[in-house]
Amino acid sequence: MRAVEEETDHRAATLELIEATRELMLASATTEMGLAELHSATEQMRAITAVLAQRRRPRVLRGDFDAPARARAIGPEAGYRLFPFHPVAFPMEMHFSESGARASVVANALFEGPRETVHGGFVAHILDCMLGTLMQARGTLALTASLEITYHRRTPLDEPLELFSRIVEIDGRKTIAEGWIEHDGVRTAEARGLFIALKETR
Ligand SMILES: CCCCCCCCCCCCCC(=O)SCCNC(=O)CCNC(=O)[C@H](O)C(C)(C)COP(=O)(O)OP(=O)(O)OC[C@H]1O[C@@H](n2cnc3c(N)ncnc32)[C@H](O)[C@@H]1OP(=O)(O)O
């Protein structure tokens, strides 16, 4: 067991490590350096992996469940970063109002599907995050029961994207939420999700 202060330092250091990992993933996937640099970088990366893998936890670190609700209580000026410890999750920071949420993102080359376009699976991931985290910010522990995505037009890479979500209807344990992505003020994709509040408490 680590002491509380050490734990805080360890999480902060892990955040930096994950940020560096994201940068490494993008650089690796897009580098045009020569053979010698590629072989050397591969060797160095394997050495780093060997060090880190000596002691591992079974799962990726998670944030505190109540953190989005705390950000919502402060207001839209407070940002909540999703999955900061997860290099594969789409990096985004949400801002909550009384009725909804928004975020501003840019999708880089790692998220490409069709040429110059965000992969449809990542579009769904982004929108599920916008809806699901809004539920979480409202203090509801719920799972996505269904998620319908409509792809109106291509969502471009390397361009500013605006994300939105809001609650449409609440009926007992069932909540319908919707979200959308805008580029240059035009909707590229929309989502409508059904969320079921779990019976069990956390
Ligand atoms: C790439 C890297 C990623 C990093 C990611 C980090 C992840 C972080 C994670 C963040 C999370 C992000 C979000 C995620 O990714 S959530 C993950 C994806 N979702 C799941 O895995 C959910 C799987 N499903 C279930 O567990 C159960 O089916 C649930 C819990 C949803 C309901 O089972 P439960 O036994 O509790 O409920 P019930 O049967 O008593 O039904 C209750 C009511 O609901 C109605 N109903 C139920 N289902 C449907 C349906 N499909 N359409 C229409 N209606 C439906 C049903 O008719 C009834 O209505 P009524 O008769 O009362 O009127």
From TrEMBL:
Pfam family, one: 4HBT
Membrane topology summary: Peripheral membrane protein
Keywords: Apoptosis, Cell membrane, Cell projection, Cytoplasm, Fatty acid metabolism, Hydrolase, Lipid metabolism, Membrane, Transit peptide
Organism superkingdom: Bacteria
Cell compartments where the protein resides: Cell projection, Ruffle membrane; Cytoplasm; Membrane
Gene3D superfamilies: Hotdog Thioesterase
TM region positions: none
Keyword check for DNA-binding: no
Record flagged with keyword Hydrolase: yes
Protein name: Acyl-coenzyme A thioesterase THEM4
Annotated organism of origin: Nocardioides dubius
Organism placement in taxonomy: Bacteria, Bacillati, Actinomycetota, Actinomycetes, Propionibacteriales
